[in-house]
Amino acid sequence: MDEEEAVTRAREWLRTRPGGDRLRIRPELTTRRPDGWRFTVNTAGYLDGTDIGSGLFPGPVVLVPDEGEIRYDQAAMASTPAEAAWRPDVDPEFDEKAFPELDLPVRAVRGWTGADGEYRRNEQYAPGPVWRGFPVPATDAEKLLNYLAANWIGRAEFVRALRDCEVLVPLLESGEPLLRPVPGTREREVIAYSSSAKVPGRYPRRWRVPVRDLPPSSGLTLDPGTGLVRSLTAAELGTTGGEARPRVVEPAPEAGPEVAEALPALVAEFGVEPPDLLERHLRYALDQARDHHFELTPSECVRYLRGFAWQYRNGVRRRAGQAPEWPADLAANGLIAHVDEDARPRPVPWTFGKFTAFGTLADRFAWHRILGAYVGFAIGDALGGGADPVGQLPLGGLTRHLLFHTDIVLRGLPPVPTGEVPATLPEPDPVGWLAVATRHAGPAPAEFSALLATALAATPAGAVAVADVDGEQYAKDVARELTGSAAGAEVTEGVDLLISLFQALLTRDAFALPVHVRLHEVGGDLATSTLALRADREADDVTQLESIGDGRSVRSVLGRALFAAAKRGHDPEAAIRLAARSGPVAGAIAGALVGARVGVPGLLSAGKLPDLGLLDDIASDVFWYFNRNGLRTETAEHARWERRYPSGRFTPEPKGPDMRSRLRGSLLAGAIGDALGAKTEFDSIDRIREIAGPDGITDFIPAYGGVGRITDDTQMTLFTLEALIRAHAQLRRTGSADVVHSLQLAYQRWLHTQGVTWDRARGPQSTAEAADGWLITHQELFSRRAPGLTCFGELEAYGRSGVRGTIERPVNNSKGCGGVMRAAPIALWSDDLAEVFRLGAESAALTHGHPSGYLSSGCFAVIVHELLHGKPLLDAVATARAELVKHPGHEEQEAALDAALAMEGPPTPEKLERLGQGNVGETALSMSVYVALTTTDADSALLASVNHSGDSDSTGSVCGNLVGAMYGEEALRQSWLDRLELREVIVGLADDALTEFGPDAPADDRWFARYPVD
Fold this sequence. Notes:
By secondary structure, the protein is an alpha+beta fold. It is globular and about 95 Å long. The protein is built from 41 helices and 17 strands.
């Protein structure tokens, strides 16, 4: 390549670069090296003398290689003969040693230092990704993801460097790597993760492999379900040829030898029954920790198991009438001391701030962030009060105020959302359990300081606001009741600002944006001045801190706390120490802000708090109360809460339908929609109008020999609910249950009602001489109502082989709607939404092997769960969508839901047809969601859902399940209920489900004869 060609290529390349249009080549500094041409460039204004100040020093060098990509060559940063060589000042976040194949990114260079000591700033420099708020990387692959997201490197550079990085590929039970087909191509892509903490817990074995050694001709999806997911083709990765290399397989931390040896030893030492109880609880802990992007170390796994074993043993002792016995060293035995209602220690297994000891109900806030905020507050209070950072961190007076304010909010708000703040809130109880548990705390700080603690105490109150109330404003109103009318404007403004920040930081999203980003969103003078100080990265932190007022006024103290959290938020401990220089208030506020973002695992000083158990206890109460949207009907829960937070306010009735009405409504409306569409399944809208009249379907049309007759959709839904009742009853009686197995057997009983003899339907693993249970005694079910061929065929196959379909071992590639149409009852199984989604998907995978066939079912179950608990449909869909995107193959269902959300009402047959026919899982759900969102009552929704050219009974059934849960049984047309087939059976089964899943489930033999153990 001659110089003329190289110059042309360099100029063309410069035109594609940011700011490249103002750069010109300096011919006198052009050099030819063995690998190509190097051209020193500078701005046109500098070279022609019209704008000397725009010059770049030293001038960038463009390398035009004989082979490869054109790029800036930082190492060859040239100088004129009159200048000395310049050394780059590289941002420490860029790891040059880890990536020797990468050219030094110009945006990662802060400036250059000459031999004579002169320093010249780089105008193109961009601060590092961690400084800007990206997660701290744990691996080289995560570093590259950060560099790419921060625009330090381009995609080509990312791919080139990634090929030498190791990733973790989950292995299936068969030992094969997790692969999935690339839609529209013959390629496969590997699912891999950039760090161990991101690998889903259901994969106990991983293949650690350099990207360059991935299976030949495979693409890569890296970190699915996270905010930094990247998909790369086989051509990009260069995995298009060569032989596969031996795999380096490693267990997940919990699957290693340390945990494997501890499990049987603990079972034997503590007499745990059933023997797999510890393993099941560990699996729950691991799954939930990974949902929060945390990983349990082998040591933490063993400590948690030991703590749980102690709890199990003392549960056995209590039931035997014996007093509990606890070890002297709680921490060494995986325990932490909560506080009971009479201020006595109550040891519980320690969760390390990574998972809750109860089912997480994903709602407005995340548990680990609330706990992180309370713990960070206490650390900052202690350090600001003069505690030795090397030793124990005692409970400070400001933290005591925070706990008292929290107690007041918990006692003062009604158990059911009303949208109104009580006229008065109770006074602190000077002799209650909390006063006793905190009497060793340090002295109380100044009055305004205590008032600022109300912000954190009041923030979660926004979660109990009714749907049409602004949660943030509701929390501010609660805070004003706490501060009282005597609080000055500065206090009120400070509390309001902090509530806005906490509302944003306590997100249940996997990744919380940093304080400085949230400050920019909130705006205002204080936020603006704080961000201006943060922008000067090189300025001394302490000097800047002390420049913010006198450190005594509300505005000054709050400003210092915000500055520390904003400038040093990427290093939480440094942020707290910086703020604590201004005293306990600034330290506590900064600690709460950074703690909310990173949780307890990001606060290294948490273990130095002797009162960590008390903080964990109260923060968990806050999460439990507010994320339940208030306490509902559980008598035992009310009694416990009344003892702990006495208020006498457990009398208001919930607004809107109660759980019984919503569950009955969901099942009845689903059956009504099924019956409305039964006659016209797959008829065109023109044919429907011929049959039913110009307005289409407005009432039941005779089908299957009668009016109001259901189809296989409702039949299978009833067998789904029966399976859940039986599995839960078995769990109560025996301590273990395989709910998916119960679902399989229930569907085999349904198959028997469709004319298949019991010996052919039951499956080879069943020894039951006849189909049992109360449901199958109803002869109306023994009628074939156009059963789906996929469901029927796969259940017949199970009857022959006994081999169950799973997500990992799909039975087919069907995505028909037969899975989603029967999934509504699964909403009852758990308050853990991830568990509800998983079970919904696994129930459908028994008969449908395509991701859209089973992920639609998981989505649907989560939506119905949220509706049964009174959540708005839009919020319920958003929650389900957040779960959906965590799973491989979600794209089709995600796109279908997004299309439904984007379409305007009112629903018409033509609009529905744009979404599909409803005969496959993703469209049955999206069409039903669209109709439910764009109608205002159950009647109009049910009719709209069946008036279209498609699978009208299935969309009617699914939409009915939604609107019935939204509006309740009372909203359904009485004339439809009166004529609905099996109405009494549906109502009876719904009521039995509430009995079984309630606090007083029967234990008598009659109940287990009605719902036998599978």
